[in-house]
Amino acid sequence: MYKKEEYLSYAEIHKQHEQLRRTLDYITEKSDVIREFFQTEGDIVFVASGSSYWMSLSAHKTMKLKTGRNTYAVKAGDVLLCGEEFAGIYKNPIIICPSRSGHTSEVIEALKILRKYYPSVKVLSIVEYEDSPLEKLSDLALRISWANEKSVCQTRSFSCLYLASILIAGIASNNMQIFSDAERYLSIAPALYTEHGNVIAGLVNEGKMTSLVCLGCGLQYGVCIEGAYIVIEMAEFNTNYFQLLEYRHGPIATAGEGTYVFILSYKGAEEYEEEISKDAEKAGATTFVVSDRAQKYGRYTFSLGEDFSKEIVALHYVFCLQSLAFHLSIHRGKNPDRPGSLVPFIVLR
């Protein structure tokens, strides 16, 4: 019988509310300098790779909805490989670079390319490693070193980068509701992590899951994708992700007994989520939902128990999938701290 506490990644996932709290406090302290940074008008472009890109895919939509500005999420690798496609398409851009390491080659080279096209561009980075090359290329660097993991996969670092990004959107828009939502969530997170982590461990130990599907939409979709990615990476498990309604356009044909479907609930779309859940279950799948309120569809709702913004529900969803990845990795005889041949960041040769 394994002892979950023996693994670094157990605490990095199930006690991450402590690092999230520090991130909330830190961004609050930096509110004035962040607000000043966004006084310049122009497009806002998130540039990232790996998990940080999926986070950006969600965060840029929150930024757009809150500020009303044009926002984009760009894969650093695309800028590196297809640089000419990014010339002259942004108006007076501000670049946001969220990165755990600040060392990833694609991001560093992408920034250099974008600076050639936009010489007056301003760069805000959110980094966890200290003294990184990315920090040196930034006009404003926010350092959240406490979020970094000792294990390989991004878990609490992803969550903290996402929280920091949506808080920055609140500051840039002078709409601080997300701060109070984060405060409320973190006050109940320890209990939720215990309750929902135990449920997830039980599901895994049943040994019935043969494949996993993660479904989401809108501003939550990037976080939904990361939920799938962490299971792929940490548990080395057959996992897919789809936009909610897209799932019925073909991929549902692969659903069957042993398929577990985790739906990231988007407030206002519950009727459609219920239909997808029923269709998947007709095919033999078992469905679950992460929501701020208990839902009448699916085998189990990982509910926050009170009204929360879509961003906070997404933040809890990724915790649930991180917990699933951890327990599934152990169940499959893997090492969740050092899965496969993964490394913390990529340096191109």
Describe the structure.
- By secondary structure, the protein is an alpha/beta fold.
- 47% of the residues lie in helices and 15% in strands.
- The protein has twelve helices and ten strands.
- The chain has helices spanning 8-14, 17-29, 31-37, 51-67, 76-81, 105-117, 133-136, 156-172, 177-206, 221-235, 270-282, 310-331, and strands spanning 44-48, 71-75, 94-99, 122-127, 140-143, 211-216, 239-243, 259-264, 286-291, 300-303.
- Helix 4 packs parallel to helix 8 (156-172).
The order of strands across the largest sheet is 2-1-3-4-5
End-to-end gap? 42 Å
Identify the CATH architecture of the largest domain.
3-Layer(aba) Sandwich
Give the overall pLDDT as a whole number. Answer: 95
What's the total number of strands?
10
The number of distinct structural domains comes to 2
Beta-strand percentage range: 15-25%
Total helical segments:
12
- The radius of gyration is 20 Å
CATH superfamily of the largest domain: Glucose-6-phosphate isomerase like protein, domain 1
Overall structural class, as computed from helix and strand content, comes to alpha/beta
Element pattern in H and E: HHHEHEHEHEHEHHEHEEHEEH
Main sheet: strands, sense, barrel: 5 strands, parallel
The CATH class label of the largest domain is Alpha Beta
Find the CATH topology of the largest domain.
Rossmann fold
In helices, the fraction of residues equals 40-55%
Describe the secondary structure blueprint for this structure.
Blueprint lengths: L7 H7 L2 H13 L1 H7 L6 E5 L2 H17 L3 E5 H6 L12 E6 L5 H13 L4 E6 L5 H4 L3 E4 L12 H17 L4 H30 L4 E6 L4 H15 L3 E5 L15 E6 L5 H13 L3 E6 L8 E4 L6 H22 L18
Parallel strand pairs: 1-2, 1-3, 3-4, 4-5, 6-7, 6-8, 8-9, 9-10
Helix pairs in contact: 1-12, 2-8, 2-9, 4-8, 4-10, 8-9, 8-12, 9-12, 10-12
